[in-house]
């Protein structure tokens, strides 16, 4: 066997040959990387828009809780989790249906049970305004399912303008659908969080790709309830620019403090639109995953009619929504005890809304409007109140270590929320990252059933705000 001795200087006699060899290695590595990774880019262009701070902050809260700090969860609107009791008579209707109606275990028709859709259409039509038939109603597995479908099957080049602050399920789904940040109109904190209609029109003119206006009424996170006049003006803007309207009305029967909720159907006239409703907040039964869409004026515009049919066709691929809650819906909502029960709940929310407003409004540097719908209240920090270097002392060193890397965010209200968690064990949601907003503030719920405990939580929050501002 002949042995060869290769001298280094023969491989690299000059610097130019070394550079050629090094370049060859770089190209080889790139080629190998190409072949060991996926052949195509499978990442959706809107992937980075799918943010849900309301639940993501729970991960931080859970870590804080493991350090021995009890956490008060004010981040998510689940009445059951906060201790509200579903009335026994509603439970009896559900249990009797489960025991005696075998069909409640089967599939429902794709659009939803006909008897339930007939009941909803009747209830809507006796209110006046736009008239609908059962075929204008489509059931989903909760409004999250409906919202995802509405934006997924909208033309990718069409945009929906929504409120700022925005409910993140809508803003994230719309932004992900378009692969671009959600376009918003401002809600005005100096005017009960009513929409700035001039800003809405200017944005629509600036963005000809906008095809629809989203309203959330009653609003999450602000607790604002649109007056009928405001809704009518939004309808006129939609008519002016040939747009359709999406109205999220999941809290439509949870109004108080003298506010009167008027559904989109009452003033929409001949403008195309759709409303979203469900039982998760009302019964409350969030685990039922039962929501529906009501389509208005599909016969008035062929493009809107085709879009509505696309959403229905998409639902056909899923077979149907959950059957049991559809079965019990007319029995519960049609029971004479239902609306008095809601009035009792709303009276308690109003009591807590007034109490929280009285406490927070006394703190200089805050803007707070009493909530008159849904079960949240929003506290906003005025410009310049939040600054670099403000802090609250954590309850222990472990909590301090958890939030330390999170404080690098440039969202000043998010820093406050982390400090609040580590120092007081209260979990709220920042407006900026939680609700796609350029306002600084936070949202808390009005769901704590015990009034004394609610007042204690609110006082703790107020003390933390004062200390933070003055730190």
Main traits of this protein?
single chain, Aspartate Aminotransferase, domain 1, Aspartate Aminotransferase, domain 2, 8-stranded mixed sheet
Task: Explain what this protein looks like in three dimensions.
This protein has about 475 residues and is an alpha/beta fold. Helices cover about 45% and strands about 15% of the residues. The chain is built from 16 helices and 14 strands. The protein has helices spanning about 10, 15-35, 55-65, 90-100, 115-125, 140-150, 170-180, 195-205, 230-240, 300-315, 325-335, 340-360, 395-405, 410-425, 430-435, 450-470; strands spanning about 70-75, 135-140, 160-165, 185-190, 195, 210-215, 245-250, 275-280, 290-295, 365-370, 375-380, 425, 430, 440-445. Strands 2-9-8-7-6-3-4-5 form an 8-stranded mixed β-sheet, sandwiched between helices. Strands 10-11-14-13 form a 4-stranded antiparallel β-sheet. It has a two-stranded parallel sheet with strand order 1-12. It is globular. Residues about 1-15 have low confidence and may be disordered.
